[in-house]
Amino acid sequence: MIRVALPTTASAIPRSISTSPGETISKNHEEEVKRVWRKADAVCFDVDSTVCQDEGIDELAAYLGVGEAVANVTRTAMNGNARFRDALAARLQVMKPNHEQLEQFVNISKPKLTVGIRELVSRLHARGTHVYLVSGGFRRLILPVAELLGIEKSRIYANEILFDKFGKYHGFDTSELTSDSGSKETGKPAVIALLKKMYNYKTVVMVGDGATDVEASPPADAFIGFGGNVIREGVKARAKWYVTDFDVLRKDLDHDESDIDDE
């Protein structure tokens, strides 16, 4: 079942993108994104509610017995227009997972991959396209996801929970680019800019369900909105190409290759 989520406040939508409520994205714009998609050197996927069906931080909070409390903190942070880093800190302060609890959760939890993501990633790999997981979630929760998808650990950009020498919660690494958002110098835009600089990628595509994914383009050459698990209307309105099934993306790659074969 696909959930429909409405933004709690206007701040949930990146301000750098201006689209009037009545504006419709033209077919030409969709075709433009498809052309970029077909020639991408690298594709960056969001994880929570995109590659995976659920939200990792919510699942961990539920395991720790503070699911509702964390949800309340999230709502309060959004209503107060809190920056991403402050909201993350507030949620972690309620959870305070120790190292043992985190490892136990990872060991008993199996990633709930979104239908079609295995086949899509496999298809991208077969084409020689580099695939990255770029998330505001936690690296330790994403590692098993990357393993299932055959994605190298070095291609994960996510947040790191810190522990003291006794294994007790000791905050999170604020030097991680994904520990904040809201500007081109932090979050997913900064990750993509770094990847382009490091590897000289000419074409990078961001795929995701949320506002922080939208704001990644630019520097990403295209953004594809994904609503297979939850539909966020603000994101859908701003995506030039919006899909609810990963098979649509995979089949478009196959279609592109069949056109090449016919030439």
UniProtKB/TrEMBL annotation:
Stored Gene3D superfamilies: HAD superfamily/HAD-like, Phosphoserine phosphatase, domain 2
Catalytic residues of the enzyme: D46, D48
Gene Ontology annotations of biological process type: L-serine biosynthetic process
EC code: 3.1.3.3
Pathway named in the protein's UniProt entry: Amino-acid biosynthesis; L-serine biosynthesis; L-serine from 3-phospho-D-glycerate: step 3/3
Keyword Hydrolase in record: yes
Cofactor(s) needed: Mg(2+)
InterPro entries (alphabetical): HAD-like_SerB, HAD-like_sf, HAD_sf, PSP
Keywords: Amino-acid biosynthesis, Hydrolase, Magnesium, Metal-binding, Serine biosynthesis
A single GO molecular function term of this UniProt record: L-phosphoserine phosphatase activity
Entries under CDD domains matching the protein: HAD_PSP_eu (cd04309)
Superkingdom: Eukaryota
Protein family: Belongs to the HAD-like hydrolase superfamily. SerB family.
Record-given protein name: Phosphoserine phosphatase
Lineage of source species: Eukaryota, Metazoa, Ecdysozoa, Nematoda, Chromadorea
